[in-house]
Every structure is written in structure tokens, then in C-alpha cells.
Design a protein that fits this description.
Blueprint lengths: L1 H22 L37 H24 L4 H19 L6 H25 L3 H23 L6 H24 L11 H7 L1
Helix pairs in contact: 1-2, 1-6, 2-3, 2-6, 3-4, 4-5, 5-6
């Protein structure tokens, strides 16, 4: 059951997120009179506000907050597990500390301190993913390394659009693509590590047991 715990959490988080988009009253930055949630026009953060952009009470809010909470808890668990099989003690400590820090501050993005938490979470995110990428390179897991480069590029492009204040119309789509791509990448790394034996573990070969009987 432990092996599937992360998948269950991610699935629950995604389900709650989809429910949030269904219950979102409406309004976009371009047109406050739209009805419902537009995946290509509404940002994720629109789901966390007390009121939707059209002025109605945002009934999607609690679904969205619950979704982020479950996802961030699963992130912290994944980073702690991934760190156990890191290439060096430095990578182990950095992935665990920065990864859990990223998960914590990412959750607080749903609060009124959104802008500040985005900055802090982004800093922890950059440290975490750079360490993960270097760790994968050292372990010669080049397929996961390549997937990581592609996945990580999307949130960084999102940050450039957000802080550079250009191509704002692309922000909602780039934001979601980057979030989902990184989530998939983290899960793939977690399951690539899951079946590894802890360092220093020892297991007798079956033929040795037969020879002793």
C-alpha cells in the first residue's frame, strides 16, 4: 500500500482541482463577465480567492485549497524518500531540506500572502530541481534527467512571464503545463527510487541458501 500512497494522493489532489474548476463561478482577467473556469485564460491562483473575478462568492476555493494541501503533503513525502538514495550526503540533505521547504511554502501560496510565498517557494524550487537534476546526472539516469530539463523549463518560463510582465495571455496555460509536468517528473523520480535497496543492505543469494541446507 505504501508504494501506491503517492499516486493516491496525487489522484485525489487532481480530482479536487478539477472539481474546483467546475465550481468556479466565472470571470477572467480579460473579461469579468465570462461564466465558469477557462483553463487557457484563468490562472490557478484565481481558484484560491474568496471572490471570483466576476464578483460572486468563490465556491471553488475550498476544493482548490484542499487540492494544494494534499499535493504539497505528497511532495514533502516524495522528496524525503528520494533523498534517501541520493548520490552524496550533500544531495541527500539539500533535496530533503529544500524539497520540503518548497512543499511548505507552495501551500502558503493559497493564503493572502500569495505574492511573497510565490517568491520564497520559487527559490526553494530552483534549489530543489537543480539538485535533483545533478543527482540524476551523477546516477546516470539520463532519461529522467532529460525529462527533468523539459519539465523544469516550463515553471521557469512561467516565472519570466510573470515577473517580466510580457506575453501575459500565455501565463495561465504555461503555468498549468509547468505544474503538471513537474508533478509527473517528481512522481517518476520517486518510483525510480522506490525499489532501490537502502545503502548498505545485504541479501543472500538463493543458491547460497540451498548450499547451506
Amino acid at each position: 500500500m505504501k508504494k501506491y500512497w503517492v499516486l493516491i494522493c496525487v489522484f485525489c489532489s487532481l480530482t479536487l482541482f478539477v472539481l474546483a474548476t467546475i465550481f468556479y463561478p466565472g470571470g477572467t482577467a480579460e473579461n469579468v463577465n465570462t461564466i465558469g473556469y477557462y483553463w487557457a485564460k484563468n490562472t490557478i491562483s484565481a481558484l484560491f480567492q474568496p471572490n471570483a473575478l466576476n464578483g460572486d462568492v468563490n465556491s471553488a476555493r475550498y476544493f482548490a485549497i484542499s487540492s494544494v494541501l494534499i499535493y504539497c503533503v505528497s511532495l514533502a513525502f516524495m522528496f524525503k524518500s528520494i533523498a534517501k538514495n541520493a548520490a552524496t550526503a550533500f544531495h541527500r540533505k539539500t533535496i530533503e531540506i529544500a524539497g520540503i521547504g518548497f512543499a511548505v511554502y507552495a501551500f502558503f501560496i493559497v493564503t493572502p500572502m500569495h505574492n511573497l510565498m510565490v517568491v520564497i517557494a520559487l527559490l526553494f524550487f530552483v534549489v530543489t530541481v537543480l539538485t535533483l537534476l545533478h543527482n540524476l546526472y551523477l546516477q546516470k539516469k539520463m532519461r529522467l534527467f532529460a525529462i527533468g530539463l523539459i519539465s523544469v523549463s516550463m515553471p521557469l518560463i512561467n516565472a519570466a512571464i510573470y515577473y517580466g510582465d510580457f506575453f501575459n495571455g500565455m501565463l495561465p496555460l504555461v503555468q498549468k503545463t509547468g505544474t503538471f509536468a513537474c508533478a509527473i517528473w517528481f512522481v517518476l523520480i520517486y518510483y525510480s527510487e522506490f525499489d532501490l535497496k537502502p545503502k548498505g543492505s545485504f541479501q543472500l543469494d538463493p543458491s547460497e541458501l540451498e548450499g547451506r541446507s
